[in-house]
Amino acid sequence: MRVPKPHRVTDKALLKALRIGYCELCGRADMECGVHHIITKASGGGDARCNLICLCVGCHTAAHAGNITKEQLWAIVAAREGMAAEQVEMESRRLAREAHGAFFGILDGAEGVEA
Questions:
Q1: Please, are residues 44 and 97 in contact by the beta-carbon 8 Å criterion?
Q2: Higher-scoring residue by pLDDT: 4, 53
Q3: How far apart are CA 39 and CA 37, in angstroms?
Q4: HSE (CB half, 13 Å, CA atoms) of 78?
Q5: Which of 41, 38, 66 is nearest to 50 (CA)?
Q6: Tens of pLDDT along 16-48?
């Protein structure tokens, strides 16, 4: 049996705004950069400023390989947003939990969901 993906918030305008033209981790501006979801989309990570960082191809690959920790990325996002890294992490995790909760009817009161 396939388990459906959690509901995920998408914000195309925010994704476009965060493509800032340089890597927020290494500073490279000589190659295309993309927006990385710190908590992956498959894990319920949505398009929220606290969960997104602009990375070059090399850093993006390293992040997906586990060579860059989520904590390192959240620290960079925290500096960008003027927040503490712990606040950014907590908000990212809260949003991911909500995505999973809404999917399983925990937060929206849906009935008929079997455990």
A1: yes
A2: 53
A3: 5
A4: 16
A5: 38
A6: 888 899 999 999 999 889 999 999 888 888 889
Give φ, ψ of 11 to 5 degrees: -145, 90
For residue 8, CA distances in Å to 11, 16, 64, 99 come to 10, 17, 19, 6
| Contact between 36 and 5 (Cβ < 8 Å) | no
Segment 87-101, tens digit of pLDDT = 999 999 998 888 776
The CB density around residue 78, as the number of other CB atoms within 10 Å, is 17
Residue 83 phi, psi dihedral angles, 5° rounding: -125, 170
pTM of the predicted model over 0.70:
yes
Query: Can you point out the beta strands (E) in the chain?
Result: 33-37, 52-56
Residue 69: what are its φ and ψ, rounded to 5°?
-80, 155
Question: What's the CA gap between 25 and 27, in Å, rounded?
Answer: 6
Q: Which helix (H) or strand (E) holds 55?
A: strand 52-56
